[in-house]
Amino acid sequence: EPRSTCCCLAWTLLIVTMNILVFCMNLLLLFVIFTIVLLPTIVVVYFGFQCHSKVLHSAARYCRSFLDDSSSSALIILGFVIMSPLIVAAMAIYCSLARRFHLLMCFQPYSRAVYKGVKWRWYEEGGLCRCGRGWNTQVKAWV
After folding, report:
1. What are the DSSP calls for 44-81, one per residue?
2. How many C-beta atoms lie closer than 10 Å to residue 75's C-beta?
3. pLDDT tens for residues 94-105?
4. Does residue 33 sit within a domain?
5. Which domain does 71 fall in, by range?
6. 101 lies in a domain?
7. Could you tell me if 140 and 52 are in contact, meaning their C-beta atoms sit under 8 angstroms apart?
């Protein structure tokens, strides 16, 4: 049966808040994975730009003794070249974690707010944490 207007608005607010929290958790996980995987690229490009005379030209000892302009340019180019496969690897890691932990299944449709007695999606599928249980491999995250 349909909910009353005030109850529907309250449930809609709850579902919107929950979906925003799930989105923020997914975004945080994505940020952490990309930061960890792309750390070598970040470091190489940083040192390349820091020691190049046309960009920052740091007075640090390692810039004067080890890195000249040509080696700094090589570091910058190397950093941007290795960025592409690392981005692909980071996205593959995120997608495998999202699929393993069913992160995209935590989003709830707004029809839960309109009608009484409709169970939550995670409750219908065996609980929020499905770790260690037999999973249905046919269930897709976008269903």
Report:
1. HHHHHHHH-TTTT----HHHHHT--HHHHHHHHHHHHH
2. 21
3. 999 999 988 888
4. yes
5. 29-106
6. yes
7. no
H-helix or E-strand spanning residue 63:
helix 61-65
Other beta carbons within 10 angstroms of residue 44's beta carbon come to 20
pTM score:
0.70
**Six token digits for residue 106:** 């935590």
Q: Which two three-digit tokens encode residue 6?
A: 């005030």
- The predicted-structure confidence for 9-22, as pLDDT tens digits, reads as follows 888 898 899 999 99
Tell me whether residue 36 is in a domain.
yes
94: CB partners within 8 A, 6+ apart: 29, 30, 33, 34
Residue 39 lies in a domain: yes
Handedness of CA 142, 26, 96, 90 (dihedral sign): positive
User: What is the number of structural domains in the chain?
Assistant: 1
Tell me the β-bridge partners of 2.
115
